[in-house]
Amino acid sequence: MYIVCIIIAVLVIVADQLTKYLVTSNLELHESVDIIDGVFRFTYIQNKGAAFGMLADSRWVFIILSVLAIIGIIAYVIVKKPKDKLLMTALSLIVGGGIGNMFDRLGLGYVVDFLDFCALPNLWKWIFNVADSSACIGAGLLFLYLILDTVKTSKAEKALKTENDDK
Known about the structure:
This protein is α+β, with helices and mostly antiparallel strands. The chain has one domain. It is built from four helices and four strands.
């Protein structure tokens, strides 16, 4: 399972860096190319903030927080040795996304963003990248895991209580 998780994280990093390379090699800064007219386009921007451009000009804060989060996740996996596939997939996606964006922050001083859903400009205005997507999907899967695990634990506790009450 751990090899699969490493492969997932590495694939996220490679896909993220490759797509960013293709965008920066083929688009000028702030240039847009429609992929699905009026719905989705590639727009090359340089994000100096956190996810979706929040808190710009805090590069070192994000680098330090990213490093701490990645080390924390890896330490958790080494110490706890979780076996749940959903949990491990979620953590792999988060780590891969974090490392992908950290490479940009360290090497460029900003993160390359380009995925631009423009269909709902009043509801969605953020431009993001593969690493952001991976980290968000990982966070969603982690949230799902926590809900499922809580329900499973609660059912097990109720079954144990019922069993003890019957004795």
